[in-house]
Amino acid sequence: MQNRAIIITGAAMGLGLATAELLAAKQAKLVLVDYNAEALQAAKTKILAKSPSAELLLIPTDVSDEEAVQSYVEKTVEHFGRIDGLYNNAGIEGKQAPLTEYDIDVFKRVIDINLMGVYYGMKYVIPVMKKQNYGKIVNVASVGGIRGVVNQTAYVASKHAVSGMTKNAAIEYGEYGILTNAIAPGAILTPMVEEAFKQVNPDDPKSAEQEYAQRNPTKKLGQPTDVANVVAFLLSEDNGYVSGQTIAIDGGESNLYGN
Ligand code: NAD
Known about the structure:
Helix content: 40-55%
Bound molecules: nicotinamide-adenine-dinucleotide
CATH topology of the largest domain: Rossmann fold
Strand order of the largest sheet: 3-2-1-4-5-6-7
């Protein structure tokens, strides 16, 4: 990863931050994109505490805004001269509700960020990678991108779309040296998942978490570093021939029928 220029969206916390910390330790040059400017600054401090010489460019951006995405891509090229990797990670869960009762504004916001944000990222990064004849893209889907999840219609729709767009990018741009994959994390303990357990059991989110963990074959939730290690491989030169895949990182849970 040394000196590779990698863009990470949703870099301020959770899965984005864990990957940023790992890639900084591997001496990649990082562009950190997030719409939470304050949390982005805090993330920078955390990364530099572990990797003091890390090269970081912070760009506060809402990935659902097409012009803003175009701008973060242009700024990256101005600053680092190239784009070797895109970790298209920013996403939201939305609110949990049955399909017929789902708030339509929340539904559209989930699609705007999770689907369109990922699409805009690829739309503007791929032409840069094409010119280089090199690039690695990792889009963040979810187990909700390979199966249904009760009360999360908008999220499931958006993440299935991410998996589908990943297949298309892989087949349309493979000949330009661009490998595109998606990851499908299960329940990984990040601020987003902590918030989901609060929605499931507002009085005792910890017990909701423990109950959920018992359903997993490993009897535990995943950690952000479990995801970061897989993403680092997919974004690296070690990945020479994996493309168009949606890779579950879920302790095997998506293979389980009934529990
Ligand atoms: P998180 O909420 O902990 O972090 C997400 C980050 O993305 C935040 O810093 C937030 O500010 C940023 N973000 C959200 N919307 C944005 C936007 N429009 N523009 C720019 N930044 C934005 O979430 P996480 O758990 O780290 O999730 C990261 C990704 O992984 C998401 O796409 C999520 O759907 C996916 N995912 C997470 C899990 C899990 O268990 N944590 C499981 C499956 C998929």
